[in-house]
Design a protein that fits this description.
elongated; alpha/beta; Rossmann fold; 5 helices
Length: about 180
Amino acid sequence: MLIILFILSCFIFLALIIFIFLTFFKITEIFFTDAPFIPTTNEIIDDIIENLKLTNKSVLYDLGCGDARILIRAVELKPNIRAVGVEVAYLPYLLAKFFTGKHKQIKILREDIFKTNISDATHIFLYLYPKAVNKLIENIKKQCKPGTLVISCDFEIESYKPTNIVDLKNKHSKLCQKLFIYNL
C-alpha cells in the first residue's frame, strides 16, 4: 500500500511540475513574442475605431488581436462589418474566442500573423513591436489590395510615410499614444 501511495505521489508531483512548466511557457509566450499581449485601454478604443473609418463593407483584421477588444468594439459600432482577429499565443486566443462568442461577424484564428491570409482585408490594425511591424508590412503589401487602410499603434512603419498621425493624448496609460495611418 505504501508503494502505491508513493508512486501516486510521484505521479501527482510530476504532473504538477509539468503543469507549472507549461503554464510558465504559455505566460512567457504572451510577453516575449512579436506581438505581446498588452491590452489597449478602453478609453482610446473608440478613437482607434473612428480613425479606421470603417464602412458596412469593411473587413477588419487585427493582427495580434489579444483578447479582441478592438474587434468587439468595432462590430458594436459597425455591426455590418466582418472582423478577423489573429492571435498565436494560446491564452489571449482563448480569451478572444470566449469574449467574441456572441459576435457572429468576428472570426478568431490561432495562426502566425506572418503566415495568415489577409488578402480580403480592407482595414488592418496593428499593435506590434517595431521589428514585427516592419517585417509584416511586406506581407501586407503583397496580399492586400491598393487602398487598404493600415493603422499601427505607437510604432511607425520604416519604409512608408504615414498619410496621417493621430495623437491620442492618452492620459490613462503611456501605451497607445499615437496612431500611424497608412493607405497602401
